[in-house]
From TrEMBL:
This is ABC transporter substrate-binding protein. One of its GO terms (biological process) is molybdate ion transport. Signal peptide: none annotated. The lineage of its organism: Bacteria, Pseudomonadati, Pseudomonadota, Alphaproteobacteria, Hyphomicrobiales. It comes from Bradyrhizobium pachyrhizi. Transmembrane segments: none annotated.
Amino acid sequence: MTEQATAAAALTPAIADGPKTIRVIISGGFAAVYRDVLPEFERRTGISVETGSGASEGTGPKTIRHQLANGTKADVVILSREGLHKLNEDGRILGGSEAGLATAPLAAAVRAGSSRPDIGNDAALRQALIDAGEVVAPSSTSGQYVRDKVFPRLNLPDTVRLTLEARGTEAAEALRAGKANLSIGPTSELVQESGIEVVGLLPPDLQLVQTFTAAIVSDALAPEAAKRLIDFLSLDSDILLTAIKRAGMERPRG
């Protein structure tokens, strides 16, 4: 299908006997973009979208994987590519339905009004973490990377304590409440939170650029409408590109 045909299909009004509602479960990484553009999709197509949320990875009831395994119904999931791999292993994803929507690098943030540490290279980031003492991150893909890759690489002293919260929103709340002095997570999650300020991206050799991906769930009740939503989110339209840029994200390359 050509790009023009895909765009036309994504925005064609819903047919009279087609499904009028689909359900999406989305993680925090693409949530800001999704919220910005969803009303336009619903307006143009007549399809209503019910939205739930969950973590891309991790353990416990707040993960998308746990929700699907325990009976939560969805037509579309939007989460990190790493999280999607696990859903594929579980047989939860319709083959060939995946679409990379946008990428987000890891950044660090402090409480609004706090001093802004330099994190431009490995040594500077190490010192910023030591000075912070209490560090918070989501327990999903980004937090696991910080715990398993960044902290060991920097050989941090025991005085630096990392707390993993179930969701990025909870990590931001811990930072605002003074339970931590530095938060690390995807730029797209940090920039949408009030009361905190992004200080910069992690250095290139410690960076993790996540691709947030949409896919149709294997037992979706409305797979055709689900595909139309994914096609819409994949369009390089002005509204999508503006929202992606605002969230500190980029379209996947290649």
